[in-house]
Amino acid sequence: MTGVAIVGIGMHAFGRTDGVSGLEQGAAAVRRALADAGASWSDMQFAVGGSASAGSADSLVSTLGLTGLQFTNVANGCATGGTALFTAASAILAGTYDVGVAVGFDKHERGAFRVDSRSAGLGDWYGASGLALTTQFFGMKLNRYMHEHAITRRTLAKVAAKAFRNGAANPMAWRRKPLSEEEVLASSMLSYPLTQYMFCSPGEGGVALVLCRADQARRYSDRPVYLKAVVVRSRRFGSFEVLAPSLALEHNAGPTVDASSAAYEQAGIAPQDVDVAQLQDTETGAEIMHMAENGFCADGDQEQWIADGETEIGGRLPINTDGGCLANGEPIGASGLRQVYESVLQLRGDAGDRQVPGQPRVAYTHVYGAPGISGVTILSR
Amino acid sequence: MRVDVPVDDGVFAITPDGPRLLGTRCTACGTYTFPRQSGCPSCTGTEMLDVQLAPRGTLWTWTVQGFPPKAPPYIGESDPARFVPFGVGYVELPGQLKVEGRLTESDPSRLQIGMQMDLVVVPLSGDDAGNRVVTYAFRPICAAGS
Ligand SMILES: [Zn+2]
Fold first, then answer.
1. Does B6 sit behind a cis peptide bond, omega within 30 degrees of 0 on the bond before it?
2. What percent of chain A has pLDDT over 70?
3. Any CB–CB contact under 8 A between B39 and chain A?
4. What is the pLDDT of residues A202-261, one digit of tens each?
5. B20 close to B27: Cβ distance less than 8 angstroms
6. What span, in angstroms and rounded, lies between the C-alpha atoms of A162 and A305?
């Protein structure tokens, strides 16, 4: 794929912004992305957007301007942002449009996500019995993985400490206070083996991207970033996913492995070519397991990688350089696009105190969400 | 007389031999599902036979629910002052599938991947007359051991 460039990026700070609706945060992100591209809303031929709990994205036109453009709402759980990007890129690749916007935003109530059993295709008994919690899945997938691959709790704490350290260097992040490994380990146990500070929280925020045909990128930006691959996959039989009353006996690698290998193939890029990665870190174990699922290391190698600081800024493969979901929280509709926003900053060399050294050329993003869906993008200068 | 009412009578049955999970088996490829489904997730077949699943298996993985689930949908104790953590795990039923359920044990030092488990019911809520809404749970078979 050669055809799509990101020429504008905009973000509304993540965290809690009382008095500002999710839609307003989405609108702020769009305006910043347009300003970054030197374009106006009336230049946009189409838009794709989504939020899980902050209203229909297409109602943004009321505040951005009733220009009559095609606006498509997308909803795909935690992969909503990735799906908005996929849909927008597809419209440009198909030759339907030259330039448009992908936007994601959200604003969630405090505390763990409230799961609607029925919309997840499950009976009411599941939630009534105390099983409809995504946090349980993360604890159970990780417990099995630690058992099979000798990952220690100390390593879980190291990943959280890195996230909050990176978040402290990111003015758009929610959690900007560094936490020690000891503080992480000593926080309350939410879902064994995961403690409070090993989990991200539902939050608020918005991100928008201006996308255009690659051959028109220089009209808008002297530092375009090219979308080399964008892939979204759902689960296949035998994978271990969130909100599953049962699992097959046989084991299948899951949608992340499928999306990842398809993205490498589409981009013609290998895992060792990636200079900086943003991986879904709903909790610290997810980041660890996703390192292997995205092809960056073998199962179990994470223990040594992390002990050696290889995933820190300055390491072999810096991961979640903006603090990830742990430091930014998870506004579902915006989360995947936040990863792309951070990737563009890193590729432009604009990431400030958290800039990856050595002028990174290739960036990688990965989201995962219920009920077993993954989105991967590969970007390059 | 006190009555135990299943949280959903399509999910498990209380029989004279104890509780039994209600699943289906694909007549084309033999894949098991829980709960019942009208189609096969493996071969896409649509002839599914109702079956009772094995009441024993081994613990495949587990966690402990350390904070009260939101109510609704939860119908058990959700008051943080009175909530008691409970275990959750997947139990591998030999030759069938892995079923997710609550565990009667919630102490991490007493839960081990690979331990033998059997099926019981546990109360979620009750009324003044002593009637209880129950759900299924897995119990370590050697509760007193290790
Ligand atoms: Zn079948």
1. no
2. 99
3. no
4. 999 999 999 999 999 999 999 999 999 999 999 898 999 888 999 999 888 899 999 999
5. no
6. 13
Class of domain A4-111+200-380: alpha beta
Q: DSSP secondary-structure letter at B130?
A: S
Are A23 and A54 spatial neighbours (Cβ–Cβ below 8 Å)? yes
- The pTM (predicted TM-score) of the whole model is 0.93
Residues A147, A131: Cα–Cα separation, whole Å:
22
Residue A128 in contact with residue B73, Cβ under 8 Å?
yes
Q: pLDDT tens digits for A307-335?
A: 999 999 999 999 999 999 999 999 999 99
How many of the other CB atoms lie within 10 Å of CB of B130?
A: 10
Q: Could you tell me where the beta strands, DSSP code E, fall in chain A? A: 4-15, 46-50, 70-73, 99-107, 189-191, 194-195, 204-213, 225-234, 246-247, 276-279, 362-369, 373-380
A335 HSE (CA, 13 A, CB side): 37
Please state at what angle helix A153-168 crosses helix A284-293, rounded to 10 degrees.
100
Q: How far apart are the CA of B38 and the centre of ligand 1, in A?
A: 11
pLDDT tens sequence across A51-67: 999 999 999 999 999 99
Q: Name the amino acid, one letter, at B130.
A: G
Q: Are B103 and B113 in contact, with CB atoms under 8 Å apart? A: no
Long-range contacts (CB closer than 8 Å, 24 or more residues apart) made by B30-36: B31/A248, B32/A246, B32/B93, B32/B96, B32/B97, B33/A246, B33/B97, B34/A245, B34/A246, B34/B97, B34/B99, B35/A123, B35/A245, B35/A246, B35/B10, B35/B11, B36/B10
CB contact B49 to A (< 8 Å): no
Q: How does the average pLDDT of chain A come out, rounded? A: 95
Write out pLDDT tens, residues B88-123. Answer: 999 999 999 999 999 999 999 999 999 999 999 999
Tell me the nearest-neighbour CA distance from A16 into chain B, angstroms: 21
Nearest to B61 among A130, A140, A188 (CB): A140
* Confidence at A111, pLDDT banded by 50, 70, 90: confident
pLDDT of residue B129: 82
Tokens of B49: 């036979």
List the single residue in B99, B108, B135 with the smallest CB-CB distance to A246: B99
Does the structure show a pLDDT above 70 at B145? Answer: no
Domain boundaries, chain A: 4-111+200-380
Q: In this structure, how many other beta carbons lie within 10 angstroms of the beta carbon of residue A311?
A: 25
**Rounded Cα gap, residues A152 and A145, in angstroms:** 10
Matching residue, tokens 């959280």: A160
Chain B residues whose beta carbon lies within 8 Å of the beta carbon of residue A130 = 65, 69, 74, 76, 86, 88, 102, 124, 135
What is the arithmetic mean of pLDDT over B36-49?
95
Dihedral sign from CA coordinates of B19, B20, B21, B22: negative
